[in-house]
Design goal:
About 10% of the residues lie in helices and about 40% in strands. The protein is mainly beta. The protein has one domain: Carbohydrate-selective porin OprB (Porin, Beta Barrel). The strands form 2 sheets. A 16-stranded antiparallel β-barrel has the order 3-4-5-6-7-8-9-10-11-12-13-14-15-16-17-18. A two-stranded antiparallel sheet has the order 1-2. The two termini are about 30 Å apart. About 55% of the residues are buried. The N terminus is likely disordered.
């Protein structure tokens, strides 16, 4: 059944997405089917129209049958202005809908982390149980970028990305709606600057592990219990997790564009993975436990490699607190794998024969992250701005990233809360053994950069983003690169 479904999706969906892409190009815009849900609104499932903080909580609690964060104590959201981008990096948060707990919606969280061209923040937002038989959404974005400094030609690049989100309630196939089948096709096209400036991809939307093709489908099934506990099995796209992180809220269509900020790499967690993911909410916390294949499942059904190169896991916890009325999310995560050789599919460098790097087995990484709102707007519920920060360190070989960090701020400007802005610094350090192995032909250094963006919503659901990146890449002999870009995204 799974093989038939994937085959059908790969045959029909690319043609549908390409047809819509042509239409969107002619109209110079993008189209989103179904209710518009911007990245920063996903966690709560509420819009910013006509809701105060209390009504937002009421809407959250209204999800049937399960809960949005749970607990038996007083509701910590009741006297809080609700920023809508509340959902964490696997070491981060997630809002889950739940029934019970006396109409209380408790803030829980969980997060972990990731590292380079294969990376993912661990902790997708928990979704409420299905109340409809079908839910669909389609997002299409178009990108124009040009390098204005560095060692690459300053020629204009055009590219695009389309993502469809199809959720089918369990009642459609004979179960109840505590089960949800998710089908997640994606399509990219055009040219970008990935691999030209810096080792970390500068365009998250266009990133493909190992330079693979343009189309993929992820299919998974989720079971959610009334307690709020959920279990997801199948193939998962890490961008869906990244787009729900609090304050950051970046998934290629929205927010930061550099992978080092949008989907912070771990070099352990694939960008697309076959996994079993358990979420357990408790009073004020959300705990996560994952088991997954170490290999990227992009353009695979998830069964081809079948853990042949090792098994990986993560455990993560996120605590939600607040400073005054401003929520904060503080997370810790541990990721490990039994991999016995470097992940060459994701490694951005060739490995010389006979080197010291790659002779160790097993991987281990620790990540810490913090997302703290500094201001939320009572007059614009779900809007605000705050600080974001993350640090990760690994035990090195066979992981090719030694440590990484980022720090910045992002959110909504008070004078135009429908817009978004962000500015952040990042740094990624390659494992010392790998640096030494390639030193005779390539001089490597830490990769460091700064990105800033501003998103202008010129009509409801239609957004135009200006983006600038300055990247001092991991190759020491290369000049610092500067990339300017525009992104057009729309939602209905």
């Amino acid at each position: 059944m799974a093989a038939f479904t994937l085959s059908y999706c790969e045959g029909i969906l690319p043609r549908a997405l390409k047809t819509i892409t042509i239409l969107s190009s002619l109209a110079a815009t993008t189209f989103v089917l179904a209710t518009p849900v911007k990245a920063e609104e996903k966690a709560f499932g509420v819009s910013d129209e006509g809701h105060d903080a209390d009504s937002a909580v009421d809407q959250i609690n209204g999800y049937e049958p399960a809960v949005l964060w749970i607990g038996a104590s007083a509701n910590p959201l009741a006297d809080m202005d609700l920023p809508s981008s509340l959902s964490l990096d696997p070491t981060q948060l997630s809002l889950a809908s739940a029934s019970g707990a006396e109409s209380t919606a408790q803030m829980l969280a969980a997060s972990t982390s990731s590292i380079l061209p294969v990376a993912m923040p661990m902790g997708a937002p928990a979704q409420p149980a299905m109340t409809d038989r079908f839910k669909t959404k389609l997002v299409v974005s178009q990108f124009g970028t040009i390098p204005v400094a560095g060692d690459v030609p300053n020629t204009f690049r055009y590219s695009g990305r389309a993502d469809a989100y199809i959720d089918v309630g369990g009642s459609v196939f004979g179960l109840d709606n505590s089960f949800t089948l998710s089908v997640r096709p994606e399509l990219t096209w055009g040219q970008n600057t990935n691999g030209e400036i810096g080792l970390i991809p500068t365009d998250t939307a266009a990133f493909r592990p190992g330079g693979k093709g343009e189309f993929d489908v992820s299919i998974n099934i989720r079971k959610r219990w009334n307690s709020g506990v959920s279990l997801t099995l199948g193939k998962v796209n890490a961008l869906d997790i990244a787009g729900s992180l609090p304050i950051v809220g970046s998934d290629g269509h929205y927010g930061f564009q550099n992978l080092g900020l949008a989907l912070p790499p771990t070099a352990i967690i694939p960008n697309t993975l076959t996994a079993a993911m358990l979420e357990v909410p408790t009073d004020g916390w959300l705990f996560r436990a994952w088991v997954f294949d170490v290999d990227s499942q992009f353009e695979r059904t998830g069964f081809e490699t079948a853990f042949e190169n090792g098994v990986a896991g993560l455990v993560a916890a996120t605590k939600i607190t607040r400073i005054g009325r401003n929520p904060g999310f503080y997370s810790v995560g541990v990721t490990a794998s039994t991999r016995s050789s470097p992940n060459t599919e994701l490694l951005p460098l060739p490995l010389p024969p006979g080197g010291a790097f790659g002779d160790e087995e097993n991987e281990l990484a620790l990540s810490l992250s913090a997302y703290q709102f500094l201001q939320v707007y009572p007059e614009a519920p779900g809007k605000g701005w705050g600080l974001l920060g993350r640090f990760q360190i690994s035990d090195g070989d066979p992981t090719f990233l030694g440590w990484s960090a980022y720090f910045g701020m992002a959110g909504n400007p008070k004078f135009r809360p429908q817009d978004r802005f962000g500015v952040a610094w990042f740094r990624y350090s390659i494992t010392t053994e790998l640096v030494d192995d390639v030193a005779f032909f390539l001089d490597l250094q830490d990769e460091e950069g700064v990105e800033a963006f501003y998103t202008f919503e010129f009509a409801k659901g239609f957004q135009l983003t200006a983006n600038a990146q300055v990247v001092d890449g991991g190759v020491a002999t290369a000049d610092t690169g500067v990339i300017l870009g525009m992104r057009l995204t729309a939602g209905f």
